[in-house]
Amino acid sequence: MYQRKSFDELATAHGSKSTGDEPAAGIQYSHMRLVPKVDSFRPIVNMKKTMSISRRRADGLIAGKQVFEYTASKAAPINQVLKDAHAVLRRVRNANPNITGAAVLKNDELFGRLKAFKNLPQVQSVLGTGELFMAKFDIQSAFDTVNQSKLIALLRDCPVLDNRAYMVYRHWAVSLTSDSIKKYARHALPLPEAESFGAAVHNLSKQSRQQVYGDWSGSRPVHMEGIVSQVVDHIHNNVVRTPLGLLHQCVGIPQGSIMSSLLCNFFYGQLEREHLSLIVDPSRTLLVRIVDDFFVVSTSRDQIMLVLERMSLGVAEYGCRLNGPKTLVNFNAVIGRQVLNRTTSSNFPWCGKLINDRTLDVMIDYAPLALMDSVEQNVSINTSSVNGCMLRHRMLGVVRSRIGKLFLDGSLNSGPTVSLNLYQHLVICAKKFHVFHRRIPTRSSQMQLFGVIKETTELAYIMMRSVHDMAGHARL
């Protein structure tokens, strides 16, 4: 299916189609695996792995026929090569959030938009009345249907992607409130703002508190023209190796690339500006999106229907159309002859969250993890890691993933909702701790286990207190 829609067979250097055993000359490729879905497969390309480059050279004549010798060499992983480009485009997006339209890249951004929407006069007047209308929808096969020409034209013509110079700082960071593991990252600043590594650290310290930064391997200047050219080459020349041979992606963008989500956000941000901006009234409607998963809430049912009707028609030049069976609303609705799915619960599900249609309170959707068996199925264990370190690292990660303003801030959520969010999260932490401990091959000592529990609860308390303090409440 994916070969027919998104991939073409790649010919070898002598004109025939490549096979799984014969590499194509001079082609840089990565490996693809198929992840099962309900009724199809999702192609995921491994771009973290060291890449293979096959080369061909003449090796004389045998029986009057030219023969070739094929050799394979290694190249840096694609995601490693693209890290500077990702850092620069992420910096551009953070400085110009409108470029990605309704996209929210993290929970704090969603918190800000929901809180601002909740404080609108028209919204305040209907809170608690049941007159908030909600809908969610996504794009069918989003990554595999992106129009490459449209995306490349957007990157080349976008005014904020001008030929400006940036300094990319490669640094390491250690958080004083988490697992103390050194993490390597890149941070881009436009020139001449980027005067030194100290200036970069000063900029970073505004975003993350209680972190220690160190220079990893110096800095390097890059130009936007070179970044755009690199990304365009990445889009145009994605080649994967499968048992059927080498395939070239002609439609869509590769799943598995660090650029994929960011490129999708640029792409659908432009779609929103061209086709939805005149429909959505920001004084009574909020449209947000996580990559291709849209959520819209409004005081007007007609506003919701206008958005759904427009997207149900599809947007041919963007190669996208609404995924009808996955569309959900909290009111009776029909588009054409299709009756849309309706939820009867007051808590509207979207991307692992529950948003109350009366109060706009936000909770985590723990229904899929209600049973211990479900928790165990959602936990993977790396048995090659040091057992005690792995348990500590995973538990601290579980805490960090769910504690934040979106779920614990009292200016958006009611007191009972904040308490419920905290209680549910601690229950899930306890269940995951049990699963981690039981599935680790070698048992940790009681002292190690108590140490992990102590650090986990201390981190949870520090993060909760931070949210509480930033909201301006009395200190816990």
UniProtKB/TrEMBL annotation:
It comes from the Eukaryota. Its EC number is 2.7.7.49. The gene is EST2_1. This is Telomerase reverse transcriptase. Keywords: Nucleotidyltransferase, RNA-directed DNA polymerase, Transferase.
